[in-house]
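Escalation from tier 1.

The customer reports that the assembly of four entities below gives different structure tokens on two consecutive runs. Tier 1 could not reproduce it. I'm attaching the input and our single run for tier 2 to review.
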Amino acid sequence: MKPEISKLGHFGLVSTDLVKSLWFFKEVIGLEETEVVNGVHYLRAWGDFEHHTLSIRAGEESCLDHIAWRTKRKEDVDAFAESLKANGTEIEWVEPGTEAGQGKAFRFKTPSQHTFEIYFEMEKTLASAETRSVLKNQTHRSWNRGVSPRRIDHVNLLSSLPTKEFADFLQEQMGFNLREYIEAPDGSYLGAWMSVTPLVHDIAVSFDPNAPSTHEVHHIAYWLDNAQDLLRAADILKENGIYFKGPGKHGISQAMYIYAIDPGSGVRLEIFTNGYLIFEPDWEPIRWTLDEMDIGFTYWGDQMDSKTENNPTIKA
Amino acid sequence: MKPEISKLGHFGLVSTDLVKSLWFFKEVIGLEETEVVNGVHYLRAWGDFEHHTLSIRAGEESCLDHIAWRTKRKEDVDAFAESLKANGTEIEWVEPGTEAGQGKAFRFKTPSQHTFEIYFEMEKTLASAETRSVLKNQTHRSWNRGVSPRRIDHVNLLSSLPTKEFADFLQEQMGFNLREYIEAPDGSYLGAWMSVTPLVHDIAVSFDPNAPSTHEVHHIAYWLDNAQDLLRAADILKENGIYFKGPGKHGISQAMYIYAIDPGSGVRLEIFTNGYLIFEPDWEPIRWTLDEMDIGFTYWGDQMDSKTENNPTIKA
Amino acid sequence: MKPEISKLGHFGLVSTDLVKSLWFFKEVIGLEETEVVNGVHYLRAWGDFEHHTLSIRAGEESCLDHIAWRTKRKEDVDAFAESLKANGTEIEWVEPGTEAGQGKAFRFKTPSQHTFEIYFEMEKTLASAETRSVLKNQTHRSWNRGVSPRRIDHVNLLSSLPTKEFADFLQEQMGFNLREYIEAPDGSYLGAWMSVTPLVHDIAVSFDPNAPSTHEVHHIAYWLDNAQDLLRAADILKENGIYFKGPGKHGISQAMYIYAIDPGSGVRLEIFTNGYLIFEPDWEPIRWTLDEMDIGFTYWGDQMDSKTENNPTIKA
Amino acid sequence: MKPEISKLGHFGLVSTDLVKSLWFFKEVIGLEETEVVNGVHYLRAWGDFEHHTLSIRAGEESCLDHIAWRTKRKEDVDAFAESLKANGTEIEWVEPGTEAGQGKAFRFKTPSQHTFEIYFEMEKTLASAETRSVLKNQTHRSWNRGVSPRRIDHVNLLSSLPTKEFADFLQEQMGFNLREYIEAPDGSYLGAWMSVTPLVHDIAVSFDPNAPSTHEVHHIAYWLDNAQDLLRAADILKENGIYFKGPGKHGISQAMYIYAIDPGSGVRLEIFTNGYLIFEPDWEPIRWTLDEMDIGFTYWGDQMDSKTENNPTIKA
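Tier 1 run:
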């Protein structure tokens, strides 16, 4: 049976200013800290069920040292290892417990040199009595501090390599479905939005010839339930002196956004809400042309600066 | 390969007062009419991609004459027919075109005698120029009239037969996953919420010893993007003289709701928003006890009358 | 020149459980504490400009020991004292500084024996550097903790004395305008909503023959900017184990509400949003009959229990 | 007794493309049409109590031919006429009925040559049975069509004349209170926000040395109850091909906005929500410096183009 990815699992963030990154993600954004082990802070949103969806540790260069994907079955971890090796990809095993709460896992470089991790076993840690929700199906109480998003949502990668090759790898080797894409007149892709879930994207990859490398992170994203919460988030970010763009609405995905920069690591965080779900098994990917690209990125609202030099990224 | 259900497809509503039901669903709720064929009105929400998610025709007794489920693959229709027959279930083929836009399909009675339909082929009809969205990934413009929900969401069935048997059938024969349930001290289920998608439920089934039959419909549901839209919906329903309960928030599913009654057919429509998604492949169903049932149904807000006699249902 | 009231100023709350009341108003509701003087805690919402809009001190019986009204001009304080004395009302002067931040003031009993205070001078205290807003026209940052209402809104009083006499006193002696009222067939009033501002009511008074006294407080109210914030408030209240009714929408005032009980003092707090403003100088009061009273109280949503015995009140 | 203004009454819009302006204001924005008399269309929002708050007629040049202010008392109309004449201002009487629903009124030019109208008598027209609200205190049903704002809010004027003189006239001759202002280093004003109501502004006036004349209209504004409604408005405007800027939040007034252009007349319409109210009788105007001006205009969100040439205005 072909191994399958079930979901985006977590981000391993390295920050040159750990104190500031923890302030940003814990106090301003309002993530909960599960525990701190060996200097690594394990965080999650109030509605995340796994031990963590974001880990942060100090380092000399800010980056995502891995982007982790959970498989559908325990045996899929080995099966993915086999199929990737068969495809010529080198893998590196991560011993159980190397990341707190996590079982057997391995990491590998995508053709673009982004570092991915594959795992299945992860503790579904209960919240502490102090922050636990009264609801049995909810991990922590919501609205404890700051923006208070519900859960991890997606990752958006940038590369100086053509998008199509990356998208093909994600489809062929990892089973992602293409949902929406921007196509240049020469048939190349400028961006591709892909998922294994009904979300329009668990991952997006974009081509930027001026990107500093083949393996950049444009942003990581967490989800809010209501668009109104995004407006509340804007107030909170502004009062805390955080630089952000938005709110606005994407054409692609129909979702609303704010893009805020973590002042510690420089990683861009998208706060994301609304949008549509794809339940159709025979979905025909939505194709956007160059002419339609602007409305695809920004249907309305405050838009990102299109110049690369104003949009620093970090590596993954 | 085992056949699989991809999603809830549509409801076939029969109304003793077609004019009033059409007014309710088209003008007050704001569904769009794809077409009218042989006296059957085919409706969908602005974000539904298929030809219809609700059909309404006149009849002598109001009921859902079928609840339709779309398969993952075309060949799953035959495969389901085989597996159900092998299980002793009688099936009845529905010729392509019998329902506008739909290909080969069949209907069968669940053990509770609810009528289900299985299909794969359905036209993904474009909206007319007048109501088409400027967005390529959206069918109709939103907010044309009334409440304006985005899409079909789920169905909630009621039966005088024990829930567990019904739930077992849905799990074993149709591949649904149990997400949350209410368990009586004797181990029987009073309600079960199940899905094939990451929604907490595509279908819920409840046990009521006083239900008029084994095959009742508690409600059908459509989805709104934002909780604020639910408050706007309350204003619209009230101005139109529609009876409803809510707004409120469920503990089970964490979703917000209004329950409105179609004055034509008497079917209860849940307008539904927020809540959580289940991406974990190893989800452990949430068990609610009798003591916790009240908070499970109504976490806060205006609640449904618990007496069966105040809660008329229609058959399916 | 006739003295005039400009606005509702503040509430002087006495609580039999000061610790619990402070937890409720500071942590759950999210009011800011300006200072604590002589055991009195002075609180306000983030958008309140005056030194305090609520003071809380410990006492043997929970009550509002005064409801304070600010005059339009400094000299109106003396003028009100004169006109009330001329009308046979006894007044009691409150020395400047008796209440922190406040200048010359006096208290008196309304004909219903509710204790009112009249003042003009009050310090417009800046927020501390830690909680100050970056906006020059806003006192504290919003969303620091809990529900986080913007400002004080109104007070609702209950009496076993007829409403009309109370309403007449408020109109004739204090200059309130009648905005909406409920009239019994015999011409008596069951409730009256009155204001000196364009708010539909700064004060409401209701008649209940079963009220424990002539001078009860039904609720005090704080304002939220958005209805969505009310739904967020419901989640916060529920997670903190606070008893509340709502959310719902009043017909009278068109505003949305939650009624929560302070577990310390037992005072009912209305969290209030939306509704209309009255700018017309020739407003004709809206008259509601007994038949219309239900929709006047609850247009839709979760309603208050109508039985007095389930609705404990505190005295003022 | 000094005459007083109670509120902003209505706008008299002249459009070079009446059909398009009516489509914009009636279908897209969703104003209700009270009646059409002599080619003039009289409109209002669902929560406006007066006969109209906007009239639209065809003309060769788009402009506001008057901005009307309601007095507090009937006799204030004559009193204003006297005081303005005494101040050297020419007035022109408008016979009762010249504008449908309106009694005795007069028009005059402000020192900036903007045309103002003063009136007291205006019919408070009931809504027709078809669109009437079930609520006694609400004129029309809300949410009948389009954006569906509740009521008229304010007007924003632009002039090539210094702001301070205009602001002084409004304060001294008409009784407006200065609420917020932008001051240049030389003590001149670049903008002033003023009101007779607790709204932060019923009128704002700005100085632009490059304005095409001394008597321009920057925008007229209508009010929405909730910020979420503004996001819904953005979707509606976009689907209808209307050019707009926003959503965003002002620092000055703390209100959220969208600025949309009527494709018929070119007038800019601000859709406006949230913000604060001023109940303090001794309000100290908030002073913004040039350095703070940007945050004053746009606290966050999509901002207006600051160049005059991209911001066409119409005359008043």
